[in-house]
Amino acid sequence: MLFTHDTELTLRAACVLINSDRVDGEQLADLPALDEYLDGFGWTGRRDRDGAELHAVHRLRERLGAIWAAAHDEERAVGQVNALLSDTKAAPWLTRHPEMPEWHLHLASVHDPLWQRMGAEMAMALADLIRSGELRRLKICAAPDCEAVLIDLSRNRSGKFCDTGNCGNRQHVAAYRERRSRAE
After folding, report:
1. What residues contact 64, with CB distance under 8 A and at least 6 apart?
2. Residue 4: what are its φ and ψ, rounded to 5°?
3. Is pLDDT above 70 for 175?
4. Could you tell me which of 40, 37, 77, 72 has the C-alpha nearest to residue 57?
5. Counting Cβ atoms within 10 Å, is residue 115 exposed (0-12), middle (13-18) or buried (19+)?
6. Helices (H) and strands (E) in the chain, counts
7. Range of the domain at 12
8. Which segments of 47-182 are extended strands (E)?
9. What is the Cα Rg of the chain in Å?
């Protein structure tokens, strides 16, 4: 494990959120889809379950996508992460739950709006990444026909392809076929 469990989980959740409208159309089009996403990553606390909440999560998704897009420019990425931390009024505190007995950080009250809690935790996970000099782990899929983001948690930072569209396998098969056709 490169980062703490909650940091890795939150970075993965951010990737899935960003990719929810980059691969196969809009995946968070309605409240049941949002609930499925939230339950899948164990988000706790207040849920208003209305259109305004869904729209706020979509806006958060755009902000996070902009951070991934700026990962090559550390100063710009840091500015965006700091703005997100400020806008969410992040206030860290340690907690643990029966389902996650390790100590971890929460950065907003369970009573704060969903986007605020999600944004604060995702911004803090990104801050952890930046503080450890690992911003280059934020990547856009290298497949020419894919815009999905990924968090490269490989030991040597060699990950290039997302896991949303089988991009790595498709690119390897295409390269194999190209080599084979040249050999014939």
Report:
1. 14, 17, 18, 122
2. -65, 160
3. no
4. 37
5. buried
6. 6, 4
7. 5-183
8. 93-97, 100-106, 138-140, 149-151
9. 18
Two structure tokens written together for 82: 């700091």
Length reported for the chain? 184
Which candidate, 152, 178, 173, places its Cα nearest to that of 163? 152
The DSSP element (H or E) to which 100 belongs, if any, is strand 100-106
Q: 78 in helix, strand or coil?
A: helix
Q: Are 151 and 141 in contact (CB under 8 A)?
A: no
Q: How far apart are alpha carbons 99 and 166 in whole angstroms?
A: 31
Measured CA to CA in angstroms, residue 61 lies from 18, 101, 116 at distances of 5, 29, 12
132-135 contact pairs (CB < 8 A, 24+): 132/3, 134/2, 135/71, 135/74, 135/77
Q: If pLDDT is split at 50, 70 and 90, which confidence band does 164 have?
A: confident
Q: What is the CATH number of the domain that holds 167?
A: 1.10.3300.10
71 burial class (0-12, 13-18, 19+ CB within 10 angstroms)?
buried
**Would you state the structure tokens that stand for residue 1, as one six-digit string?**
């494990």
Q: Give this prediction's pTM.
A: 0.88
Domain count, the chain: 1
Residue 14 — pLDDT band, cuts 50, 70, 90?
Answer: very high
